[in-house]
Design goal:
This protein is an alpha/beta fold. The protein has seven helices and seven strands; from the N terminus they run H-H-H-H-H-E-H-E-E-E-H-E-E-E. The radius of gyration is 18 Å and the shape is globular. About 4% of the residues have low confidence. Bound molecules: 1-O-pyrophosphono-5-O-phosphono-alpha-D-ribofuranose (PRP). Belongs to the purine/pyrimidine phosphoribosyltransferase family. GfcR subfamily.
């Protein structure tokens, strides 16, 4: 996708297929509010969540040029592993990488390969959400992958927007008895130094210019 019109088109195609705004948000990697905005801009009817009244501020990150090619993805994994190593100066100690489903999992796999580390995955609570209070739900670690307890780990995802998903994952790892020592993402749209005291390393930063306030 090259521009917002492509996004509007995709959002409306998905809406026409009957997807909710939450599902469209998952597919397009944007917030639920942004999904609602995109559908309404395309002439569709927003479902479940109201459109925001303020100007749109989210930024869609299309990293499919990496995601569709395993070789390129492995290069990104190498870069992220290197960046995470700069966090604590010695990532040879870390033998576990936790990927946040869905998009963070392939990235985490390449980072784990690079570090010769184990792989765990976490499905955040938003994946179970349809309606109602999302705080009543909980995420979960897949039993098909490595255990967390008593281990230090890196946490990997594609993007940070609000930081909600990464923060939830850090807390879930701590509750599971693990210790996150660094977070790695392709793009941190919020520009945070750390979340819950865990350093955040981003290959790219979004810096807004020319805006008031
Ligand atoms: O910082 P936040 O506001 O929580 O947003 C970032 C999250 O949103 C995206 O997930 P999404 O559910 O859109 O897609 P995915 O499940 O395919 O990864 C992204 O992969 C992060 O997990």
């Amino acid at each position: 996708m090259k521009n917002v019109d492509d996004l509007i088109g995709s959002a409306n195609e998905l809406a026409d297929q009957g997807l909710s705004n939450g599902e469209i948000a998952d597919e397009l990697n944007v917030s639920r509010e942004t999904a609602s905005w995109l559908v309404e801009r395309g002439g569709g009817t927003a479902t479940r969540e109201p459109a925001p009244t303020d100007a749109l501020e989210d930024i869609h990150i299309d990293w499919s040029a990496f995601g569709r090619d395993s070789t390129r993805l492995s290069y990104v994994g190498r870069a992220m592993a290197d960046l995470l190593g700069s966090t604590d100066g010695d990532n040879e100690e870390i033998d576990l990488v936790v990927g946040i489903e869905k998009a963070g999992t392939p990235l985490a796999t390449t980072v784990a390969l690079e570090l010769d580390a184990d792989l765990a995955t976490y499905a955040p609570r938003k994946h179970q959400w349809e309606e109602g209070d999302i705080d009543d739900l909980s995420g979960n670690f897949s039993r098909n992958f490595a255990e967390i307890r008593d281990r230090e780990c890196y946490v990997v995802d594609d993007t940070i927007t609000s930081g909600t998903t990464m923060t939830e994952t850090i807390e879930a790892i701590a509750e599971e008895g693990g210790t996150p020592v660094g977070c790695g993402v392709l793009v941190d749209k919020r520009g945070v130094e750390d979340l819950e005291g865990v350093p955040v390393e981003s290959l790219l930063q979004v810096i807004r210019v020319g805006q008031e306030g």
